[in-house]
Amino acid sequence: MRKKKKPFSMLLEDLRRDLETFRSLRGGARIQFVWDYYRWRILACLFAIITVCTFAHMFWEGQRPCRLRVCVVLNTEDDCGQWFDAFTEKLQKDGKPGLVDINQDQPFDYDNQYYYVQELEVMTTVSSGRMDVAICGEDMYSYLLALNACLPLDQSLSEDLSNALSQQGRLVYDTANLKLDKNGQVNPADGIDGFYAADLTGTAFEQTYNQTEQADEPLYAVVISNTSHLEDSEALLWELLELSDN
């Protein structure tokens, strides 16, 4: 049997009764009364407010002019904000509008039991166009390769930068788009070979922010294939690799 809804007048009567009860109480008893009888309504309101504020913030962030979005996932817990402040100041000397958005809050580590959540976060960030360049270690780089999200640097960068990377031996050759089939096997024939990253080993940036107890933890710079800010992505690579004073 369906439960009949209370008419509006009865709801008002309940509210009036609760208000009188609330007035008759003192101190902590008032708080306890409100929590006992209205906690689910309070929690629902808080959830609605947080949801609205979150989407409003995302919308506002999306409207801001941004010329470069960089995701930095180091092998250490160092803060490289100071380096990027200097880079941003140098980049903005050309007078073009837009900010440089640096995300250092997106961890990625396959040793973490919640790595699949990190994969989902990276996939969402890439697909929504909120990542132009990733500076990351081997774990995140391998996932970006699996997503086929890495721009082939030798084919897409300017000739000057591509040649400079090649001459210094910094172009990293790899295979993208490798995925497990239903049997858990990988077919190399499905992969796409190319130069998908720049090796930052030995650069001042890597020496400052990537020194760990493990000597074999590399750091890569990857340009995301759906970037709409290729020119500024190249400017970041020039600066990271100290290839030019421009």
Mind explaining what this structure looks like?
The chain has 246 residues and is of the alpha/beta class. The protein contains nine helices and six strands. A six-stranded mixed sheet has the order 2-1-3-6-5-4, with helices on both faces. The longest helix has 36 residues, at 28-63. It starts with 7 loop residues before the first helix and ends in a 6-residue tail after the last helix.
Output the structural class.
Answer: alpha/beta
Low-confidence stretches: none
Helix share bin: 40-55%
Give helix and strand order, one letter per element, not per position: HHEHEHEHHHEEHEH
Briefly characterize the structure.
This protein has 246 residues and is of the alpha/beta class.
Secondary structure elements and pairings:
Blueprint: H1 8-24, H2 28-63, E1 66-73, H3 81-91, E2 99-103, H4 115-127, E3 133-136, H5 138-146, H6 153-156, H7 159-167, E4 171-176, E5 192-199, H8 204-209, E6 220-223, H9 230-240
Parallel strand pairs: 1-2, 1-3
Antiparallel strand pairs: 3-6, 4-5, 5-6
Relevant terms:
246 residues, alpha/beta, six-stranded mixed sheet, 9 helices, 6 strands, 14% strand
